[in-house]
Amino acid sequence: MTSRCKPAFPPSTSSEAMWALNVSNSARDGKANSSSNCGSVSVAFPITMMVTGMVGNSLAIMLVYSAYRKKENKRKQSFLLCIGSLALTDLFGQLLTSPIVISVYRAELQWEQVDPSGTLCAFFGVCMTTFGLCSLFMASAMAIERALAITAPHWYSNNMKTNVTKQVLITVWCLVLVFALLPVAGVGKYTLQWPGTWCFISTGDRDVTGNTFFAITFAALGSFSLLVTFFCNVVTIRALVTRCKSKPNASQSSKQWERLTTETVIQLMGIMCVLLTCWSPLLILMLKMISTHTSSHQCRQSSTSLQPSLQMDCNFFLTAIRLASLNQILDPWVYLLLREILLRKFCQVANAVSNCSLEGQKETQKETVLDTTKKQAIENDEIPLDPGGNAQA
Questions:
Q1: Taking Cα atoms as reference points, which of 100, 228, 254, 114 lies closest to residue 172?
Q2: What's the CA gap between 151 and 140, in Å, rounded?
Q3: Read out DSSP for 30-41?
Q4: pTM of the model
Q5: Other beta carbons less than 10 A from residue 386's beta carbon
Q6: Running DSSP on this structure, what letter comes out for residue 25?
């Protein structure tokens, strides 16, 4: 299932010509050298990820669309829009990039056969940047939405309308797309990455105008999004636990709250673990390669001339981008599919918090009516008084 590893990058400069010479020399070392360089290169990865991602995100979109059309779910439409947009973003990201990767594998890792003009590389880089950052920012938007629904239910119910959610999602999409198009406008650069099956932001080309700024900004935006998501989820978990502890232990609502809180806390912790595991390696490695001015061109050298540390970074960079792509597959499962009727469960929690004040008002009214009845009963000598002067029910 593993493709034959051929020189994936066409030599176009004098330094790259030297790289080609090194490749031809190292070819005499036999298949052992080649397999050590390309052992992790397999078409099974993009095919498996594309199929599983399409299935998961399609199921999530269908469930969200079905729930969104129900009239009784009007209060939940903001949450449904967020999770539906996230699933749609992940699905389009896979549909636009995976076929290109598979085509390059079928061309035996010869990118120039699939993209002679180099235009497809820029398109691939724009897609990777756009859909990657959009997924992260939408995850942050959902974390903020949850935190507001739990910690500020009155403000949330009055201000968080469906139109506001749509405007936020469209704004995120437009801003990220404009940022991703900067290399097309001459600020930054998308280059072919090891092992020659995908294109992404160049991390070491200091001669390219604005390249360092573009790469650092991407890593900074991604890291900021992770921090916002982590912080908001922690706030939500704390508010849920505090609210659950404040309920009377013997009441039925307390038991329901405890169950819903446990499920939601587990889910939020799972979301944070998935995001940190999938995105932290790529963002950290990008910052490291930017600081050392390491570019993808250096990953084109043969194993005989490539430094061990750089070879490790090149191989780890491929693993890191696969982990980031894995997040698009796991999103629908951690947000929706792994919990039975997750939308209904979460919305029950949100509605319970939102209706808490109304229930409190009803309880206060009931207590007021009960106190009035007791006073009237005391005046009519219907209820005896205890030694402290209080009426005994």
A1: 228
A2: 16
A3: -HHHHHHHHTT-
A4: 0.73
A5: 8
A6: H
Indicate if the alpha-carbon torsion angle 66, 68, 72, 75 is positive or negative: positive
| Spatial CB neighbours of 346, under 8 Å, sequence gap ≥ 6 | 79, 146, 264
Q: List pLDDT tens digits, range 184-238.
A: 998 988 988 877 888 899 887 777 788 889 999 999 999 999 999 999 999 988 8
* Helix or strand (DSSP H, E) at 387: none
> What are the angstrom distances between the C-alpha of 343 and each of 55, 349, 390?
19, 10, 47
Please report, for residues 64, 259, 279, 335, the alpha-carbon distance to residue 263 in angstroms, rounded to integers and kept in the order given. 20, 6, 24, 12
The three-point CA angle 311-313-316 to 5° equals 110
Backbone angles phi, psi at 198, to 5 degrees: -155, 160
Q: What is the mean pLDDT of residues 54-78?
A: 81
For 103-156, what is each residue's pLDDT tens digit? Answer: 998 888 888 888 888 899 999 999 999 999 999 999 999 899 888 888 888 888
CB 126 within 8 A of CB 214: no
Within 174-223, strands assigned E span 190-193, 198-201
Angle of helix 308-332 relative to helix 119-151, nearest 10 degrees?
A: 50
Beta bridge partners of 385: 391
Cβ contacts of 51-55, under 8 Å, gap ≥ 24: 52/329, 53/90, 53/91, 53/94, 53/98, 53/328, 53/329, 54/91, 54/94, 54/95
